[in-house]
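Summary for the steering committee. One of the milestones for this cycle was to obtain a three-dimensional model of the protein with S-adenosylmethionine bound, which we needed before selecting residues for the alanine scan. The sequence and ligand used are listed below.
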Amino acid sequence: MTAEEERPAGDLRTGQAIEATIEKAVYRGRGLARVGGRVVFVPRAHAGDRVRARVGEVHAGWAEASLAEILVPAAGRRTAPCPYVPRCGGCVYQDLGYEAQLAAKEGVLRESLLRAGAPWEGPIAVHSSPEEGWRLRASLHVAAGRDGLRLGLREEGTRRVVDLERCLQLSEGTNEAWVELRTLLTENPKLGARVNGIDLLESPDGGARVAAVTTTLAPRQATALLRASPPERLTGLGVEVGRGRLHWLQGTPFVEMNVGPLTLRVHVRSFFQANRFLYESLASTVSGLLPGKGRVLDLYAGVGLFALPLAARDGGEVVAVERALTAVEDARANVRRNRLEGVRIVPTDVRQALAATRPEPGERIVLDPPRTGLEKEVVALVADRRPAAVVYVSCDPPTLGRDLARFAARGYRPDTVRLFDLFPDTFHLETVVRLRPA
Ligand SMILES: C[S@@+](CC[C@H](N)C(=O)[O-])C[C@H]1O[C@@H](n2cnc3c(N)ncnc32)[C@H](O)[C@@H]1O
């Protein structure tokens, strides 16, 4: 330990320069170090790094610090392949080799579950992904200022738009569409100044690519400007003016996703898993973890990524609960198209659907909530049905840990934990947990 590290805990102060060795990775791409007995979080520092950092905010038991210099790099470090790292905050792990990223994410998952009071000491199967070109959907932000138009991604944790020419997470076709959109907005400054964002969605084979442009311009003006020179790389283009009013200008707002023998239509505004290489194995893993017959409840069902393959395999009843209108419409169209009449779409809030549906013996339940996880009442409603098994798909380890602790208090414990690296190079990770009655 250096003299700095040996200072008593109360000694850290904002602006102070410290040296520390990063002990482990924690969620959101931060490295954890201990200085004088106090925990210090250093963004972009990896386990094993020896760093110089500057202390930011100081809290009761911990402090934040910004990375100033890497004195001794961790074993897994490499030069990030993307020139925008670290300016663009999206890929906090890109300066780690891919194997080291996966090890860091597994550690982060175990740490998050432990901290939440739901420790998991069993094995975690890790599903890896190609590191580049995996992203099926992206939200581009636009900022027009004195320095010109910026079209890109938001710095992690801030609202600042980083102007990017291309992104390694996207396919070549989507990067080319991005260049076309930039030209369109730059050549039409009226449009550029009044566009807030662009949502892009691509089919896994890159054959279809659609965009929804959100603007504060009047509908007629926005439509005229976009129609004048629509990007060639897009098969569909729409404009949203005012709240949720989407006018479709060209092609359709949908792309198709194959899931084994099934084909799912997905609207640009519906949720769909972001990784083209892993969404099918995510769906087959969820089905594989729920063997047996009888009813399945697929809660937070989206367009039916889990519900439809489950119904196709079992031939039984699947109740798919989803409240977003575009996703509900997609799910209904997908049921018709794939002739899976056993799937019943319930277009409502999960809590209401649970309260309105009588439990059946042997029932199995899929949960795939947004980042905020499950409402406390939903955990209670699910556990009180005494399902034979629950598969919980989570994109946020801390809320997953909180919810697993709540399930444990109601007699449901994990017997399988898997990690899907749906978001290579970023700090995000997807977890699939099966719970059984204890
Ligand atoms: C993480 S996505 C999962 C979708 C789907 N399982 C998939 O993998 O494609 C969560 C979905 O839950 C829906 N949702 C969020 N809160 C909900 C609620 N309280 N009741 C019903 N649906 C909800 C969202 O609209 C979204 O489609």
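Key point for the committee: The first strand starts at residue 17 and ends at 21.
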